[in-house]
Every structure is written in structure tokens, then in C-alpha cells.
């Protein structure tokens, strides 16, 4: 697990450093946060969105005139509201997306890229009782994200992003059914 995270960071850093032949003052650091509408796909049955939050930081690195690479580290509340045995699945992750942003106009951008998620906690709530289910889920989740951003100024941005988990988050030893994360995020970002 540590090796996977280390490789992920190393590859992202090398990619950003290699592609960006720019001055350090053009690199922007920032914070971002917002709302999550999280759900579970796969064999989840009839589920509804779980409302949660995400918050963290980012580095925006210019690569070419209209391209930027943006690694992020985000705490993210995911899971679902459900009808199949529990009222709510509360899965909290440390997500590490690496987005490539393409500027469409002066203010709008499209972005997409891979995401590594590290499971921090997993609880299921049923009729007021809460149970820890972290041992039944995998410790990592790989996914892809894509979205649309609007930059209101040089330092403020609003993003709408869809993150799709592409790995089964149910532990292989359980193997009764499969689940994957699906999250819509609306974010406000402030760069320094």
C-alpha cells in the first residue's frame, strides 16, 4: 500500500516537473472544499445520494499555454444512503487526484485525470446503530475524475467534477458482491 502511494506521488511529481518548463512564480498553491453527492455503483441495489463534504489543498502547475497539471489531496466523505440492510454507508477517504486542466476560454476549463483513494474509515448505520465495516472494504480505491471549472479571477475557481471508482471496493475475501464509488463534487478553490 505504501509502495503504491509512493509510486503514485513519484510519477505525478516527475510528470509535473518534466512537463513544466515554467518559472516557480507561475505555480499556484491553494485550498479547496465543497459538497459531495456520493453513491455506490455495482451490486448496491437501490441507493440514494449521501450528502457529504470534501476539503484539502492543491498545487496548480502550468505545462503549456492552455494546460495545467493539478495534484490535490482531499478528505472526502463518500458512501450512500441505502435500502439494503443499512440506512447509511459512511466511507471516508483521503483522495489524491492528479487533474490535467485544459483552458477552453479565459474563464472555463475542462479537467480530467486519475485518482487514488485511501480508506480512512467505514461505518454502516442501521436504525441508529453504527457498525465499523472497514475490514470488509479494500484499503485503496482507484478511479478517474472529469469535470468543468470556472475561474472567477486569478485566485478563485468553482469546479463541478464527477469521480468514478473503477475498482471494486469490497475486500476480495468477502466476494459476495461488488461496489464502486461514484461521487459528484462541487468545489470552491482559492489559490495563493
Topology of this structure?
Blueprint: H1 2-19, E1 28-42, E2 47-48, E3 50-64, E4 67-82, E5 88-103, E6 108-126, E7 129-132, E8 140-151, E9 156-165, E10 179-191
Antiparallel strand pairs: 1-3, 1-10, 2-4, 3-4, 4-5, 5-6, 6-7, 6-8, 8-9, 9-10
Please give a structural write-up.
The chain is mainly beta and 192 residues long. The chain has one domain: Porin (Beta Barrel), CATH 2.40.160.20. Helices cover 9% and strands 64% of the residues. It has one helix at 2-19, and strands spanning 28-42, 47-48, 50-64, 67-82, 88-103, 108-126, 129-132, 140-151, 156-165, 179-191. Strands 1-3-4-5-6-8-9-10 form an 8-stranded antiparallel beta barrel. Strand 8 (140-151) and strand 9 form a beta hairpin. The longest helix is centred in the first third of the chain and has 18 residues, at 2-19. It is elongated, with a radius of gyration of 17 Å. The chain starts with a helix and ends with a strand. The model has no long low-confidence stretch (mean pLDDT 86).
Biggest sheet overview? 8 strands, antiparallel, barrel
Helix content: under 10%
CATH-derived architecture: Beta Barrel
Counted by DSSP, the helix tally is 1
Derived from helix and strand composition plus strand pairing, the structural class reads: mainly beta
Proportion of residues in extended strands: over 45%
Distance between the termini: 32 Å
Overall average pLDDT: 86
CATH topology: Porin
Give the count of structural domains: 1
Number of strands: 10
CA-based shape: elongated
Rg calculated over all Cα atoms? 17 Å
CATH domain class name: Mainly Beta
Q: Tell me the strand order in the biggest sheet.
A: 1-3-4-5-6-8-9-10
Low-confidence stretches: none
Amino acid at each position: 500500500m505504501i509502495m503504491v502511494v509512493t509510486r503514485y506521488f513519484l510519477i505525478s511529481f516527475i510528470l509535473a516537473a518534466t512537463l513544466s518548463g515554467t518559472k516557480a512564480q507561475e505555480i499556484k498553491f491553494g485550498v479547496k472544499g465543497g459538497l459531495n453527492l456520493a453513491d455506490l455503483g455495482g451490486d448496491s441495489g437501490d441507493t440514494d445520494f449521501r450528502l457529504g463534504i470534501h476539503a484539502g489543498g492543491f498545487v496548480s502547475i502550468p505545462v503549456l499555454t492552455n494546460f495545467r497539471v493539478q495534484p490535490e489531496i482531499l478528505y472526502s466523505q463518500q458512501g450512500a444512503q441505502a435500502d439494503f440492510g443499512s440506512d447509511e454507508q459512511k466511507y471516508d477517504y483521503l483522495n489524491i487526484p492528479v487533474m490535467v486542466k485544459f483552458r477552453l476560454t479565459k474563464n472555463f476549463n475542462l479537467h480530467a485525470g486519475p485518482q487514488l483513494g485511501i480508506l480512512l474509515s467505514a461505518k454502516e448505520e442501521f436504525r441508529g446503530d453504527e457498525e465499523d465495516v472497514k475490514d470488509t472494504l479494500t484499503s485503496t480505491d482507484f478511479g478517474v475524475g472529469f469535470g468543468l471549472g470556472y475561474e472567477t479571477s486569478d485566485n478563485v475557481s468553482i469546479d463541478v467534477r464527477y469521480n468514478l471508482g473503477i475498482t471494486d471496493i469490497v475486500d476480495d475475501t468477502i466476494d459476495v458482491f461488488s461496489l464502486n464509488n461514484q461521487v459528484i463534487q462541487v468545489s470552491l478553490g482559492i489559490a495563493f
